[in-house]
Amino acid sequence: MAVAIALARRGRPASAPNPNVGCLLVKDDRVVARGWTQPGGRPHAEAMALAAAGDASRGATAYVSLEPCAHASPRGPACTDSLIEAGVARVVIAAQDPDPRTDGAGILRLQAAGIEVVVHVLPAEARAAMVPWWTRQTLGRPFVTLKLATSLDGCIAMADGSSRWITGDRARAHGHLERAMHQAILVGRGTLDADAPKLDVRLLGLEDRSPKKLLLTSGAAPDGWTAVASPQAIDDVDSVLVEGGAGAASAFLAADRVDRLLLYRAPVLIGGGRPALGDIGLTDLAAAHGRWRLADTRRLGSDRLDVYERVREG
Amino acid sequence: MAVAIALARRGRPASAPNPNVGCLLVKDDRVVARGWTQPGGRPHAEAMALAAAGDASRGATAYVSLEPCAHASPRGPACTDSLIEAGVARVVIAAQDPDPRTDGAGILRLQAAGIEVVVHVLPAEARAAMVPWWTRQTLGRPFVTLKLATSLDGCIAMADGSSRWITGDRARAHGHLERAMHQAILVGRGTLDADAPKLDVRLLGLEDRSPKKLLLTSGAAPDGWTAVASPQAIDDVDSVLVEGGAGAASAFLAADRVDRLLLYRAPVLIGGGRPALGDIGLTDLAAAHGRWRLADTRRLGSDRLDVYERVREG
Asked: What is the reported pTM?
């Protein structure tokens, strides 16, 4: 299953609007095929693996990171039906599909066809691999990552606004990789006016991954940009990377709409510079604790990246 | 020699005004005695080890982290003479003593007495172990550590000044241990008036290590405190821990008088809070780079401590 989940990660974020799923077909202790959701959402992971396996899928075990879909669409058959037709003997599923069109119906149909079904194998890991899609599916809003690139004293620019560069090449390249992993990138009006950022992905081979560009503004957006009135107003993408500035970052934090925090920090002191955040509505220090959990930390050249995840109850 | 240097660390900071030195006596591949500079500076490391070894020092090798002193004082004989009298056969020295009263004279006297002398064994490590004394001896100023305890967004307090607590128990206990390792602690006028900090060492068994209390002020200091007019005005201690607030921190950074930076960081976001630093005289971002090197990083409960050292040329 861990391999199926690793395959699932390959589909992100290009699989949107479909979930990024991974599928591994195993027969007689050998892997006979692998599949993951293709760009645009089709073929599904199971369809890709079944096509690759051909006759070898008969009697095989399918490991899938998400319950196979039970609903046929104009774009293709239901994976549940395809697995049954292919003669798969056993299906191991990480997480049940929260989409109401499936949500257990796939499992029941497989079982009715005499296929052995095992569920809840590494479900948390599977959800983590498709957390953008899962968040929008279950909460009706995108999974939001906030990126901050600061000095050791928490400044995102000098007092005069200059910010090129605080972090180094490797940290900035990592930032471009994060862009490529998101469906949309958002900046505030001040950042657009001051920096006119291109927000493209400047990494060889990933240029076509440049995501949708959102502008947090009460007004109109220029060509190539989509205006967004508030953090709560985004419902048409699975994932948003908030890149700046302090106003946009603070608006998302004040609305408690940040799920993940990328903190790039350079070993420099600025002093009296522009702070990373403005008011985020905190009234009591005690309330600030317990909200963020360190999920990852790494060196990027002489900079450090700390990744924090929002701890949410239930 | 690494053991002798580890012994040297035991003497810090209580050995002041003398350097904290370590001494290991080895004979026939066995350690026969260990010594380190005692509180107040006497006995010296060599004297302590020779006293413990007794007759066993005859023909032994002495490993010392600093060249043995060549000058007798009213407080005791020169260690060079004591080593010769004890019949030590060989002396291995990490670093030559920069004190002009010795500075090579100890080595020459040992050699003149027919003792084999080896020098420059792990000199950088030895200097690091006694960096406060070494800094004052060679530069005429104390070694200064700046402590900052901030949120992820670089704030040392909320906008209303409340700062209890940003970091947790373990980070604060570590801060007390750092106090115990310093000869003096300094705060600015604003911190004294707002927090009336006791600056004592609240660690079991280390209560008597509470250091001298300095106040950065152009005016007078209250009872129990010593007034210091500027970062450049301190010349009577080997080590100073600058504890706050932003004004004092910025003054020391602007004067380039910070050698080591302790950055305690809690996984909280404050937003619009009080910044760790004010203006430190930076006029160009490029000039901020290359000044600080990460020397240590560790988790303290849910907080992180990053230790940076000032990179100085030559």
From this structure: 0.90
